[in-house]
Amino acid sequence: TALPILMLVVEYTGRSKMETFLNIIPIIVPTIVAVGVMVFVSYRNKNAADNHQVRISPVLCIIFNVVLIIGVAFFNFIMLYTNEYPVFIWILFACMLAVDIILLIAFYHFKITYDETGFYYQNSFGRRKRYEYTDVRSFSIGRIYTFYLQDGKKIKLEWGHENKERFLKAVTEGYYKATGNMLQQIYTNK
After folding, report:
1. Residue 72 φ then ψ, to 5°
2. Any idea which of 7-11, 151-155, 168-172 has the lowest mean pLDDT?
3. CA distance 137 to 115
4. Which of 7, 45, 102, 140 has the fewest beta carbons closer than 10 A?
């Protein structure tokens, strides 16, 4: 992000401070948000494995925020070369920040906390439910880890979830201790 800012400063040294500010702010704000989200999610995930938790990886935040910064920089260069400040760019900028905030809230809320007898599943909206290991009917492993529950619901853990392997081990061991049987694995290509 240093190159676009440097180019903007060089280009706008003869312009008013307000024009310079309006052209630089769409790059500075997403950069601050990106760094803040990465620090926040990394802090939240720091002790997740030790606390027997599955959380969303900060990699998802990093990828989304890099795309956000590149997109805003692209639209900022459009404004730079056309010398126009279209309203749709500011609306797009506001929408991108709103999506980033919604994702941050989802990253904050999602977690699975497990122990010897079962686990708490908290979805991205903050709703929390307790399941025993015997509530798990079967599982499948692939690109997505899917746990099929007795009530017909599914819990899906994708590549962006940290500690999913430890959770799988806890579920299979907990199910075996509770029932004396092995948990059924469904083989899929997904």
Report:
1. -65, -40
2. 7-11
3. 18
4. 102
Name which of 114, 80, 97, 83 is nearest 34 in CA terms.
97
Q: Cβ–Cβ contacts within 10 Å for residue 144, how many?
A: 15
26's CB contacts (< 8 A; 6+ apart) are: 72, 73, 75, 76, 89, 93
Question: Which of 44, 74, 21, 70 lies closest to 163 in space, CA to CA?
Answer: 44
List strands edge to edge, sheet with 184-186.
Answer: 154-157, 145-149, 136-140, 184-186
CA angle 77, 79, 81 (to 5 degrees): 70
Q: What is the mean pLDDT of residues 164-181?
A: 90
Q: Taking the CB of residue 172, how many other CB atoms lie within 10 A of it?
A: 16
Give the confidence band of 133 by pLDDT, cuts at 50, 70, 90.
very high
pLDDT, tens digit, 9 for 90 and up, residues 100-116: 777 777 777 788 889 88
